[in-house]
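ARCHIVE RECORD
Type: protein–small molecule complex
Small molecule: FE2/S2 (inorganic) cluster
Source of inputs: curated submission
Record status: active
Notes field left blank by submitter.
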Amino acid sequence: MRLTSKGRYAVMALVDLARFDGINPVSLRDISLRQGISLDYLEQIFSKLRKKEIVQSVRGTQGGYILNRKAKEIKLTNIFDAVDEKVKTVQCKKESKKGCNGKSTKCLTHNLWDELETHINNFFDKKSLDDLVKENLERRL
Amino acid sequence: MRLTSKGRYAVMALVDLARFDGINPVSLRDISLRQGISLDYLEQIFSKLRKKEIVQSVRGTQGGYILNRKAKEIKLTNIFDAVDEKVKTVQCKKESKKGCNGKSTKCLTHNLWDELETHINNFFDKKSLDDLVKENLERRL
DNA sequence: TGATACTTGACTATTTTGGTCAGGTTTATA
DNA sequence: TATAAACCTGACCAAAATAGTCAAGTATCA
Ligand code: FES
Ligand code: FES
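STRUCTURE (tokenized, with ligand):
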């Protein structure tokens, strides 16, 4: 069970961006340099973030990206959703009565993984981008 | 972020085994049939569980595996550890001051992933094999 | 009319996963 | 004591997921 770097990068980049929010659009090139993430990869990630209306793009010279909502209203859940970093503990559908890989009943541990998923999602629901920026500022003082 | 089936199978198999614990050794063949897990794969998994002293093997005809500790004392953490299903949110060492892939400092989000890891491990620390067996019995009544 | 920066889609190398396969060894029991 | 059940080990492999790269644009500002 591990976190993929797509999710990690998305959050890193957004925290970076949020720090400058309201001042200028931030270019991916800058984020790439500051955070050490491949520019091409960032583009893929931001394309998804834009489609989910988490960021807005500003084209042309001096362009870049800006947040599309207040940092306080962007939860980790939203970010992870946008880049397809889902928490997947099981394959079987929650609603269906069938088990994994087409079995007729749920397996012995189905309920456990369900609980786990909820437990993790709770964490993501609570944390907002704003929280992260603030925590980061505090640590620097 | 997803759970691998090695971890899932390990827990499934142990719950199955625990239900018969104290009566007979349970053969992997039986578990394989009941739970629909490849026998060869189960052998790999149980080899690890044995090395970490979670189960004991009984060789020969009528052999199989038995729990090596009380079900109450086997936490999910122990099981996951044994089969190398670790919760990995970051690459960088917790203790080291260096960041991921050799960067000189920790990244903006390091602390966040650390919290997440703790949050997940809390869940695994609380659940014991015994809990799972009981929950399962209740649901059948 | 550059230069900057976003946009898109296809492609690819590496790693991880989820196994299989072959060939053992041990031991109860018929 | 033979034999079959069951554990034991290590090598091997195909498919999927990951973590990108590459190429060829388009929009906008100075
Ligand atoms: S049936 Fe849902 S996890 Fe096995
Ligand atoms: S430095 Fe530890 S997560 Fe980035």
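CURATOR ANNOTATION: The radius of gyration of chain B is 18 Å.
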